[in-house]
Design goal:
- There is one protein chain.
- The protein has about 325 residues and is of the alpha/beta class.
- It folds into two domains: about 260 residues, 2-enoyl-CoA Hydratase, Chain A, domain 1; about 60 residues, Lyase 2-enoyl-coa Hydratase, Chain  A, domain 2 (Orthogonal Bundle), CATH 1.10.12.
- The protein is about 40% helix and about 15% strand.
- The protein is built from ten helices and twelve strands.
- The strands form three sheets. The chain has a seven-stranded mixed beta sheet, with helices on both faces. It has a three-stranded mixed beta sheet with strand order 8-10-11. Strands 2-3 form a two-stranded antiparallel ribbon.
- The longest helix has 23 residues.
């Protein structure tokens, strides 16, 4: 599909309606099979959410955490809608970079503990008898895995994702930020891997992703203590790349960086992200072998031809991603 325009906000602000997939009846001998048609893939035009909104400016999409009245606490709608939002953004070939930002005074105070109290599993079964410990554990694990997959949709986006963080970034907010490729912050930002203070082991990605970002010692300190750290401390340990004066400035910085990325060949940028991700658990030799194979398949592109022509003609290159 084409971009939504030079600067437009996704107009849908209601929750997802229940989708009733049509059933197809086919005969197979004496049997009758009922096949469910999969729902259509999400697009920017079809995306709707009560807690997220999408804005597109040229080749850059801004995904807004849009529940300011609750300080962007992450309730059921957030976890369901986040992967749909990322899929909708990814459906538009004109989008080349994503900024994750938040409306209101805070990026996110993390998990909505009241709304998500069912994480511990059902208290009873269908007959009304108390659920066994095993049944509760099975249910709780399935729910945690679902929440993990929601944030992983950000990390696994082929597009580069930049977090523009201001105010509180606590618990699940850090999980989301850690899933982004680059993090920028305002001077008033406060970060906390807070889970230990509420008797939870952080389980949505911070303990797995942060060691690759800030190192094991800093992760251990933050996760064991649950302490708050300032934007200045976050910058000093590499959690954020740079600190801006305020929320407006950090959003502007994130969008400027996203536009700078989007001006490059999308094939090269997305390939670089894929190679970086593949190299995290590989030796240098394995990583070199991987990128050699990648470039063998993608180096001969229209974008490379355009880059060479632009260099010779002394003009900016205009890349198409082909």
């Amino acid at each position: 599909m084409t971009s939504l325009g030079t600067h437009t906000t996704c107009p849908f602000r209601t929750s997802h309606p229940k989708r009733s997939a049509p059933l197809i009846r086919t005969a197979a001998g004496r049997s009758t099979l009922w096949l469910m048609t999969p729902p259509p893939a999400p697009t920017l035009g079809s995306f709707s959410s009560e807690v997220l909104s999408i804005e597109v400016d040229g080749h850059v999409a801004t995904l807004w955490l849009d529940r300011p009245e609750k300080r962007n606490a992450m309730g059921p709608a957030f976890w369901s809608d986040l992967p749909v939002a990322m899929a909708a953004i990814g459906s538009d070939p004109e989008i080349r970079a994503v900024v994750v930002a938040a409306k209101g005074p805070h990026f996110s105070v993390g998990l909505d503990l009241v709304a998500m109290s069912g994480l511990v599993g059902p208290s009873g079964n269908s007959s009304g008898a108390p659920a066994s410990a095993a049944a509760r554990a099975k249910s709780a694990r399935a729910e945690i895995v679902r929440l993990q997959a929601s944030v992983t949709a950000v990390a696994e986006s082929p597009l580069p994702v930049i977090a523009a963080i201001h105010g509180y970034c606590i618990g699940g907010g850090v999980d989301l930020a850690a899933a982004c490729d680059i993090r920028l912050a305002s001077a008033d930002a406060v970060f906390s891997v807070r889970e230990a203070k509420v008797a939870i082991v952080a389980d949505i990605g911070s303990l797995q992703r942060l060691p690759h970002i800030i190192g094991k010692g800093h992760v251990a300190e933050l996760a064991y203590t649950g302490k708050d750290i300032t934007a200045a401390r976050a910058e000093s340990i590499g959690l954020v790349n740079q600190v801006s004066d305020n929320s407006d400035a950090v959003l502007a910085a994130a969008r400027e960086m996203a536009a700078e990325i989007a001006a490059n060949s999308p094939l090269a940028v997305q390939g670089t992200k894929a190679v970086l991700a593949a190299g995290e658990d590989r030796s240098v030799a394995d990583g070199l072998d991987y990128v050699a194979t990648w470039n063998a398949g993608f180096l001969a592109s229209d974008d490379l031809t355009e880059a060479m022509a632009a260099f010779i003609e002394k003009r900016p290159a205009v890349f198409t991603g082909k």
